[in-house]
Amino acid sequence: RLAAEAVFCLRVAEIRREGLAAVDMAAAREPQGPAPLARLQGRDVHLLVVESYGQVLFSDPRLREPFAAAAEKFREALAREGFHVASAFLRSPTFGGGSWLAFGTLETGVWLPDQLRYNYLLGSRVRPLAEYFNRAGYRSVSVMPGTTMPWPEGAYFAYRQTYYARDLAYRGPPFAWSPMPDQFALHRILAAEILPRQQPLFIRYVLTSTHAPFNRLPPYLEDWSLLGDGAVFHRLEPRTFPVNWPDLQGAAEAYLAAVAYELQVLEGFLARAVRGEALVVVVGDHQPVVRRAGVQPPWLVPVHLISRDRGLLAPFEELGYRPGMLPDPAPPPKGMDAFLGDFLAALGG
To answer: Is the pTM higher than 0.90?
Structure first.
């Protein structure tokens, strides 16, 4: 780390020039058409960013088979609800942490490998994803249950409504790093935004229950009406694992359990929240921390597109997305900075 920081200091002027150029280029290539989201025809869009959901689940022999079983169970549950799925890998700008660099890259088309370039973005003319939805008549909502401190930088991303930890009014215990279970956070948004909706919704969720160290997981409540204000979790036993930060050498079972929990939560949420032919995007932010992911694994994350409208997924399949939950490992994955342009091109009029 010290060597990397020394190199950064020596190259800071060059890095500054590269960062400013990248931001300017992103602003210059924004689509100029009048209706970049016309193909949605007012359908809701849910963008769910899943913490530490990495390619290692598809490649590591210790994880691949049990994860494949969980993913297939998830796909079958979606199919029973009439959903189709298409998947790909994306290259994340960060590894093992720095989630804001990942979703910042995803939502702006600017490659953000470090905080310096991220700071340039915040003062730039680059239009973030939510602003496209705002201009298309959507209500844009950001849900970040892991944000427990003021975050003025969030204003750049142009969401009309934000929900941070304090806004979700959770009265239960934390679970490892996560201030609240993702099931609770999604349940709150279901009641506050989705069921009483008055206009099309674009909601971005930054989920937290799969955050390291994975050692204390919340139980899943089949009956979501029992979630209340979250106090019920004081009376329920968490699922625990003998893993402690920062030593995650033996965290395979805990990590798998956290991801399986997340898929179960998403299954229940989509069945309750998604009506009609909405579009759902489930994407990882980065690979899990290095002790879990092994030595120098690729910086790849899966992305899944889910909809009852098979036609909405077709243009993404032309871009390399593969039907089902398992991305095609053969084509070189695009960077997360390509997602915004592909998304707007696939859904544009």
So the answer is: yes
